[in-house]
Write a structure and sequence with these properties.
Distance between the termini: 69 Å
Strand order of the largest sheet: 1-4-5
Strand content: 5-15%
Order of helices and strands: HHEHEEEEE
Largest sheet: 3 strands, antiparallel
Oligomer: single chain
Low-confidence stretches: none
Number of strands: 6
Length: about 150
Amino acid sequence: MNDLWEENKKGIITIGIILLLAIIFGVLTLLMNNGSKTSEKKLSSEKALNELGTMYYEKVYYPYIEKEYSEGYIKFLNNKSSVGIKVTLRQIQSSIKNVNTENFIDYKNKTICDYDLTYIIIRPNSPYGKKDYTIETKLDCDVKYSSNEKSGA
């Protein structure tokens, strides 16, 4: 009996090591896939926020400044080019009708973006036309919600 154990000992240990490695590999794969889905959600939210920023600047902010400051709007935008124009998600939502907020809710993790701490910074660029600007996004999307409160943290 002892001889049988000695003969199979190496095989049993090898199978055990292979099973252990397979389990470790499986756990790591699951963790990596979950992390990439979180990254995909963040990219989706950043893209949506950038698109809303473009819509806000070109359809709301720029026409208002152009009208309000008449001939002086270029000087006004030039002054804003270094500091930028900070606009929260809440301000965008109140200025643009039918804002799709689905991109700012993560149903799987039950988190939502904070509408006051999620924002864009618009930096007008010379020659200060309607499409002469850059947008930076800042997401704050770790706010937990319960299933009955999903309308802007």
